Amino acid sequence: MAGKLTLAYFLSGGCGGCDMAIVDLSETLVDVLPRLEVVFWAPTVADVKYKELEAMPDKSIDVGLYSGMVRLGEQEHIAKVMRAKCKVLVAWGACAALGGIPGMGNMHTREEIFKTAYFDTYSTDNPDGITPQTRCVVDGKYELTLPEFYEYVRPLHHVVDVDYFVGGCPPHHSFVAEAISAVLEGKLPPPGSWITGGKAVCDICRRNPALRGEEREPITAVKRTIEGVPAEGKCLLQEGYLCLGPVTQGDCKALCPKVNIPCRGCGGPIPGVKDFGLRAIGAIAASLANEELVDQIPSPVKLFYRYSLPASMLGRKVK
Amino acid sequence: MSDWRPNIVVFACNWCTYQGADLAGSLRCDYPSTVNIIRVPCSGRVEPEFIVAALKNGADGVFIGGCHPGDCHYREGNHRAIRRFILLKRVLTSMGVEPERVRLEWISGSEGKRFAKVMKEFNETIMALGPNPIGRDGNGR
């Protein structure tokens, strides 16, 4: 690709971990930087204002990375601006691609969330019962505004068209390098796809019994991670620690199972899976040895949809 | 609302429940015309996605019919089906969907009368619940 590739990055409803994943490239980033020109990176890295982004010509930016889900009016606005200005728009990380951890907020209404955040929490002192308003007038003359807090969390592709999806919470930095060089070299799959190696966490995980030619046994116990210690080198799922590796993209190189933590699905669904949580329910439930074990799974929605509730078919709790 | 008719999707296992539905027909048993049968190789073939996709796309109730435990043509497909079903039902309940909208029963090829009876019952359950809240016009994006 001739000349410099222009990049815009926006941290939306996320936590900043995806920004960190790019910074974690360290020396690789230094190699890549001469080929990149960051024209917008708010609010963490570059001091470019929204109005400057809005003033750029349409389709003038080569690649836009959008990290974080859409909960606020401001986030929706920038998503639309990014879509207009960027040739390629990437939903960067689990929140933008699936809704992410904040997506579990879709189990609750806005009123419930405000009640907890501004009234019920132990450290809250709110005698006047003030909740965030989109407009207020201070001293009778200064009008202040806040973005609207929408009823539900949405992944980026529910707001604008998205060209590529990258999973991970955050994406593993070695995979960040692969994804960014794929973009730089134009080696991209058809628009609308996930950028992924296509393998499941189990395919990569060294605990997988199939890779050692062993039979996969039914799961005979359901354990939480605080119960006991998983046996060295044994499949976590077979040990009873509900691991979502069978349906999760393994671009993370199976990092969590390596350190005794079952996969929670941040990488996003393996190719061909539309609804991560439902496929996980199918995979895990069918592996259980009996029906009684099903009732021992704590909070199934927040286990199977930990990162993907807003992007799922159900999407949010029915009122 | 008074002329509302439910839309019921029935996933019927090829070896038992579908034969039961066939027998119900041969025996001239009445059951509601709201029932739409989809023949599947096994109740274990019914993935949770199928059930939720049906609910999202206009079904008011989803019924899964399989062979009695121990009778599965593929030995354990129905055992898998019930485990998935129980787990999915817990998830649907947490998501605010009435758990009565989904039902799983073991109906064999000789139980034609029972098939008709269960369909009538399920139709009444769905009639009482009313239209599905997560259908096309409900919980859409």
Key terms for this structure?
heterodimer, A: 319 residues, alpha/beta, Rossmann fold, 3 domains, six-stranded parallel β-sheet, 16% strand, B: 141 residues, four-stranded parallel β-sheet, 4 strands, globular, oxidoreductase (chain B), MvhD/FlpD (chain B)
In a few lines, what is going on in this structure?
The complex is a heterodimer of chains A (319) and B (141). Chain A is an alpha/beta fold. Chain A contains twelve helices and ten strands.
Instruction: Report strand % of chain A.
Output: 15-25%
- Rounded mean pLDDT of chain A is 92
Count of separate DSSP helical elements of chain B: 4
Question: Compute the gyration radius of chain A: what is it?
Answer: 21 Å
Helix-strand sequence of chain A = EHHEHEEHEHHEEEEHEHHHHH
Report the major sheet of chain A: 6 strands, parallel
CATH superfamily heading of the largest domain in chain A: NADH:ubiquinone oxidoreductase-like, 20kDa subunit
Beta content of chain B comes to: 15-25%
- Straight-line distance between termini of chain B: 24 Å
Task: Please count the beta strands of chain B (DSSP E, at least 2 residues each).
Answer: 4
Assign the structural class of chain A, choosing from mainly alpha, mainly beta, alpha/beta, alpha+beta, or little secondary structure. alpha/beta
Overall CATH architecture of the largest domain in chain A: 3-Layer(aba) Sandwich
Quaternary structure classification: heterodimer
Number of domains of chain B: 1
Give the integer mean of the pLDDT values of chain B: 93
CATH level 1 name of chain B: Alpha Beta
